[in-house]
């Protein structure tokens, strides 16, 4: 992999030195003063939902909500100036800021929030999508009957105040309103097709979209945003095909910031003090194929395999290979909980001819699976793996021809891939439990089991002064600042 990176870097540097004209071309996306190029793995197709960290990061720049959750877990007013709760903890009153405007210059009012909640509910596909709002008086009735939102649902505009009344006390209600999905926006139809309609959209956040190309989204500051000191003037979100390509772009100054660099290059970046690492709530877990035709329909075999893998990744060699990891263990049958030690695979595993693990094609999954297959081979256990794009992975999983797959679960937002999402919804006997609770239940039978949690890694140029992340580990784009008088 180092060889590939070196070749890419060499090619990109060489292309810049061929002629002055070509240097000018590369400068189109280079970072002059007050402009940052952010390398991303994809550009969202839809701005009405929050399916991944890139989408959440972009949406956080374009839209804001009543409140948000800071990295330390505190609820902070955002488009509201303050909020209060009555003594019964059933009615919430938000005082809306007086200095907030849409990106077209129109004032944002409490009525805009009522209209947003109506449009949000109208675009929900099931009551499960309204789980966080289920305590709001009339919300379920309106979703079922779609009759007069203002008379049915207790979300009311009252001058500069917004009032929300609940049916019953919900200690998590304010925290739920801080979720990215409840940021203020308009016209969900255009949001779903924003690539063709971004000029017609209006934004409540610090940035607006000024241009969309196949591989680049350009954001410019919203001149009507209340905090004019926040952020740089322009941010380009630039697609990088993979972490190696992104690193080559970073090394040749085509991008200024990126996430999750190639693992084997991380130490060099650390030495140059170009890395920021912080704990992330993303858990890697194994999901077994428990269908009758699969050998892993046997719960004991699932447990044996899990404990073997836990032993492998508890080895110091794993933490050296993938740094910033915390191995997770929950096995009630193990007296060595939290202290798993490597051991030979049990006879039940040795009876298997081979095991095939599916996963999304990314650097962490690749290095993890390389490590596992190499170490298992020393124990004469044959493990294969296949890597796919996320869309292709989901299609393969639907066919059912796999032993197990690797997925991510965000403990704060509840995000998983769409295949896991549907599996959790169809799990029997879980009623109205949250995804976290359903996953917790599935661990008992070793159906879905956690392996490790990994730190989030941000790589940035030294002239980027500040980076802040929210509670969900997503970078707040309007926190990005350049050193004074910087010109790259």
UniProtKB/TrEMBL annotation:
Keywords, ordered alphabetically: Signal, Transport
SUPFAM superfamilies, per the entry: Periplasmic binding protein-like II
Domain of life: Bacteria
Any Gene Ontology biological process: peptide transport
Residues of the Solute-binding protein family domain: 74-303
One Pfam family cited in the UniProt record for this chain: SBP_bac_5
InterPro entries: Peptide/Ni-bd, SBP_5, SBP_5_dom
GO molecular function: peptide transmembrane transporter activity
Gene Ontology CC annotations of this record: ATP-binding cassette (ABC) transporter complex; periplasmic space
Protein name: Solute-binding protein family 5 domain-containing protein
Lineage: Bacteria, Bacillati, Bacillota, Clostridia, Eubacteriales
